[in-house]
Write a structure and sequence with these properties.
The chain is built from 16 helices and no strands.
């Protein structure tokens, strides 16, 4: 029997693949995102082991310059598909380019702990707000509870124990970094729904963002690349912590909501903390141990809630008209 075509030109099998039903992709999607976040969490340790004179802004530009073409070379493109989602790809590109300087500006103004806490902690809430506005998809109460639990753990994990308030400039920069990541995940999901593969969206946005950040290489110091470990750090961050991690991230995008994507990314500071303890030899306070426990519990609940939601959605009979409207 010939497959029934929907009004958008997809048959049932193609739509199922796009929605992630075949092979239990929706069930595994949060796990791919968690695996990507674990690789992102190795960035801090890599910077700590790199030469002291390493410029983080140049390193951020180099990791995009290395990972973007690598992802692009392993992707197949259709011009028609790219044109159909060019607005979303453009938004994702600008978001990736904006994240690098705003994140480092917030960290420089308020310190690593506060800067990271505001930037990464605000991303899930901002992503949920964007998703509610653009897709009319309000977050569930279970997601809110799990995310609050994870954010509580993040706060305990990164709180530096100081009384000085954050600076307005640093706070705005960190919030801009969180908003940039939120726009990136929402724009990537919209491009995927328009017909592009997530890897294609990420490859295009990274190449465009790298082109925007290339001028940094001409007015920032790059001599540290010739120091022992400098080039190795750049290669690792570009190939493993960015290209490979975003390949994993791309596998989970279609089957995970934007709000959940941002929440699962909180595994990044958790990984960074554990690596700092076991690799660099830093001490873990009792407060940080409690933060690790709370963060792990929150991430586990978020992943479990997403799997339960998508398993329930996969049992709903397919309706081509509803799919077209979605």
């Amino acid at each position: 029997m010939r497959p029934v075509a929907t009004r958008s030109g997809f048959d049932d099998k193609a739509v199922s693949q796009r929605r992630g039903f075949i092979g239990g992709a929706f069930v595994r999607a949060p796990l791919w995102v968690l695996a990507a976040a674990v690789l992102w969490g190795t960035t801090g340790t890599t910077l700590a082991l790199a030469p002291p004179e390493t410029d983080p802004l140049v390193l951020g530009a180099l990791r995009l310059a290395l990972s973007g073409p690598l992802l692009l070379a392993t992707s197949q493109f259709s011009r028609a598909q790219l044109l159909s989602a060019w607005r979303s790809v453009a938004v994702a590109s600008l978001a990736v380019a904006a994240y690098q300087p705003t994140f480092f500006l917030g960290v420089r103004a308020n310190g690593v702990a506060i800067g990271t806490l505001i930037a990464i902690g605000s991303a899930p809430l901002l992503a949920a707000a964007l998703e509610m506005l653009t897709e009319r998809r309000p977050p569930s109460l279970r997601w809110l509870f799990a995310t609050v639990l994870a954010l509580l753990g993040l706060g305990l994990l990164l709180h530096p124990g100081r009384t000085l308030p954050p600076t307005p400039t640093g706070t705005l920069a960190s919030l801009a970094a969180g908003a940039s990541y939120a726009f990136f995940v929402v724009a990537t999901r919209r491009a995927v729904r328009a017909g592009l593969a997530a890897q294609q969206v990420i490859a295009c946005s990274f190449v465009a963002a790298a082109a925007l950040l290339i001028p940094l290489l001409f007015w920032r110091p790059v001599g540290w690349l010739s120091a022992p470990g400098g080039l190795l750090a750049a290669l690792y961050l570009g190939i493993v912590a960015t290209a490979l991690s975003y390949r994993l991230f791309a596998r989970g995008v279609a089957g995970t909501s934007a709000a959940t994507l941002a929440t699962l990314s909180l595994a990044e500071p958790l990984t960074a903390t554990l690596l700092a303890v076991f690799v660099i030899g830093e001490d873990l306070t009792s407060q940080q141990r409690l933060g690790v426990t709370s963060l792990v519990a929150g991430l586990s609940l978020v992943a479990l809630c997403e799997q339960m939601h998508q398993q329930g959605a996969s049992t709903t009979p397919f309706d081509p008209v509803r799919e077209e409207r979605a």
